[in-house]
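Minutes, structural biology subgroup

Action item carried over from last meeting: produce the structure token record for ArsR family transcriptional regulator (Thermococcus barossii). EB confirmed the sequence was re-checked against the source entry. Recorded below for completeness.
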Amino acid sequence: MRVDTLALLKALSNETNLQILSLLRSGSFHPRELARLLQRSESDVSRRLKKLEKLGLVEGRWIRLGGRNVRIYSLRVNEVKVNFLPGEVRVGIEEAESYRLPITFEDVPKTGFFVGRHDEVEILRRARGRVVVVHGIAGIGKTSLLARAFPEAFWYSMNGSESFEYFAWQLSLYLNSLGYRALMEYLRGGGKEEKELFELILEGIDETESVVVIDDLHKCRDETLMRMLSYLAGRLKKGTIAVASRVKPPLGIEGIVYINLGGLKPEEAYELAKKIKKGIPVDEFAEIYRITRGHPLALILLLESPGESSEEARENLFEFLFTEIYRSLTEEEKRMLLMLSIFEGPLEYEAIKALYGGRNTFSVLHSLLRKGLVERRGRQYFIHDMLKGFLREKETPESRTYYLEYAEYLLRKNTPRDFLKAFEYILRAGATGRIRELVELRIRRFKHLPGDFPKTYRMILSHAGDNPYARGELGIIYFNTGFFQKARDTLLEVEDKIEGLFKAEVVSTLADVFLMLENLEMAGRYLQKTRELAENLQDPEVWLWYYMEKTKYEYYRRNLEEALKSAFKELEISRKHGGAPENEGLVLLHIGDIYLDLEQPEEGIKYYEEGLRVAKAYGLTFIEHVTYMELSKTHYILGNYRKAVSYGNRAVEYFLRIKNYRRAVDALAYRCVSWIGLGEAERAEEDARELVRIAHSTGYPLAWAGYIFMGAAKFLKGEDGSGYVEEGRKHLQDYPWLFEAVIQELGRVFEFPEELNLSRE
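Output recorded by EB:
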């Protein structure tokens, strides 16, 4: 295929384009789903896909779903070859068996002034299967050491506001680019179990033999990340976790290597000095080394200082050095340094350009880089924390203006992560009057945010005081994370303090909360309130919330016909107003479930299959496999045991792979009884043993039914299975309704001996 060589090479030099290609390697995607995974705007992703399609790297196709045309994209080629020939560069694209495309999601810092540290680098590079912690005082060179040892690592820097869930999302994208997809699929399916996430992270890092670097761990405020490090220590075999921290974290000793980083050796320091100041006399260097004791940042500052070393330098080295250097800066350089000092994290060049406002942004920034006052990490720039403190003592910059300007820049980027950062800086600026505007933006554009990043969002909202709109968001987070009583109390507190769309979300969520708390009377009352608000506001979003809650409410009350009508209305609104694809897939699943409860399994299959088409079209892997599980169950009920096994195979393999054990148990149970229905006792016994293994590992109640299925398989083979059945009964004694349901379902295909007396006691 002939391609535009320059355009193709330019496209492949862009990190975001590579991330898109890597994700498409795992299946077809709709632009909206890619945007969610990459934390970018849908318009930006669509534009990139069109460019990649024009270059022949991806292909888009229209499919008909739910009465409308939908465009989805998939990878067209797997390999790009670049041949350097006399007089030309020739690029070819073609299919290949496989490839490995490691993509960094945060650039590894540059190490331009790096010298020495040969022993430490060697220790780090030999630390496969270990968690390595490099700790030491500020400016001692921890980050530079890790960057030199691991130039192709997955790099993640803490700034105090991120949470474990954001780290997990970013790591999942990186591992997906290396061919390990289970972590990303688990997160896409809404998985949040800590133990399962830790297991998937361990498996992904080992399977891909990755190096993961976590910089500035001392800034971490999420204990889950610390627990993850403790879990990985002693369990890693082929991968490596490297950590930089100013303080030694309490992670224990098993599987961990600690490096307490001190100053440079004299010969290493002299090498650094010659890089900065050529021809430096040995006696002058000796005096500098005596003052700095080999501290790299101090060496750089002292060598850049226009003054002479003195007793003052010995007593208060950094303050003296920085004062000397600061005096020599131009007013423009001072202004940029002060601007950078007010931000906790690094800024990308476009942000600096927008905030600084001068035409000479690049030249001023480059001058500060050359002087060692500004550091660069990929496309981002920052100043060392030590220097920030000195700068803030020298002058007090107008931080509020910069915070608000930066927030506007972030909001224009239109991604969930940038929205969170913008919210944080608006609160830092004290602009609490904008909270209502931001909450509406979250509702309209970033619906998944409270569920995807609850800890990060909650941390930011904690600085909003008693603002009712922020409190309402906290209530939504509590609901999404399963704290239903806290959600109820918080949402009831703000219900009468907010209005419009915000009140509608709070009221509809309260209807859901009361359903979860099994208070149907209050759920009905808040469902009616939601309807009244929908009629007043005439907002499609509110009508969708109403019908979503009505479907659940009527289903709980077993008014199945009313639940079915509501579900179809929910589907209609979602399709008409461009609702999220996963919502459409879930509604189709719910419709199938209701038909199943109405004892119309054939109708249920129709909607499950339609949901399957939606899931495949949009790359909704989790919903796709939930649908396989429901189809397995339905075909079991119809007596189509071979089909039940076929669908069950796909569901079981997937849910075990992503360690979603609750779903895996459901799928295994129906596959197991289907094997019994087919008379294949050996295979039924295998599934029963897997269920028992999961039961002992997780304690999921249904998994204990594995003992009962084991007993049935033994009886089927002509052996005595009564001991296994009694073991199952014992483990389910606190769940008598579940025991009865298991016996009833199994009764479709197997009849236990009467002497077991399995009737409900």
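Discussion: Residues 118-260 form a domain with the Rossmann fold fold (CATH 3.40.50.300).
Next step: EB to file the record with the rest of the batch.
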